[in-house]
Task: structure prediction
Amino acid sequence: MHKRTLLLTAAALACQTLLPLAAQAQADYPNRPVRIIVPFPAGGTSDIMGRLIAEEVGKQLKQPFIVDNKGGAGGAIGADQAAKAAPDGYTLLLSGIGSNAIIHGFSSPKSGYKESDFIHISQLAAGPNVLVVNPQFPARTFKKFIDYVKANPGTVNYGQVPSSSGHLTSEYLKQVAKLDMVGIPYTGGGPALTDVLANQIPLMFTNQDAALPHVKAGKLRALAVTSLQRNPLYPDVPTVAESGYPGFSAVSWTGLSAPKGTPRPIIDKLENAMRTAFADPAARAKLEGNGFVVSTSRSADYTRFVNEEVARWSEVIRVGGLKSE
Result:
């Protein structure tokens, strides 16, 4: 009994020693560089977002935040690595609509993780998809586009990157407007947009920042945006919602998340850094200049939003009978 008492006493003393050390580690966070996994290759919109967070949050917390691109499987490879990382605040994830919402709607998902494997820290920004057509496409307005597709069922092709935001937006519109169009799969948005520019396919939904230079140059025509409000960089382009489909909303979004189990004081510190950083007009301008709406939020609000997006896109996938590629 005496020996057991000594062991219990030693264990209690060890716990008392470790608890202050853990609290001190959280209070000192971060005291070394922090890695942000961006689950897509360098050069795209997600990479730009991740590097902007790294720059601005790093300034706030006085430590380097380093982007680590881990592309593949629609964002699942990088997100899975982040989910399995040590929950100490030194590995974070650039979360987004593809890897943290759409992917969970498939019955045989590419992901090895659940959305509950993350604590969502703060949303960064959101931007609409834009329906763009080659200038030779006969419909010059969104209403005439709907009329044309209905008059020519099964003959209008559109570009899609399977399981992407643009793909799911196309499927969503097909369901609510009862359209019969044919999706042509592409490995990425760039090749699909190139083919729309060359009139190899007539149209696609794509991110507003990718479409903008081509629309400004007159090489593409924008027929509608998919946010509930018009986008400041497309002031003359109507929303789908105002064009006969009230409530239609399909935006691409990104934010910052951490592995489940990351201590709350660290989450709070990162949340506050995000909100402070992007309250600065200069930081906001870097996003708004590309048509994004800055939407930094509290952790609870971002978590609720992500869960709503999982439910929304899971239903679109179910109704459309879509399969994971």
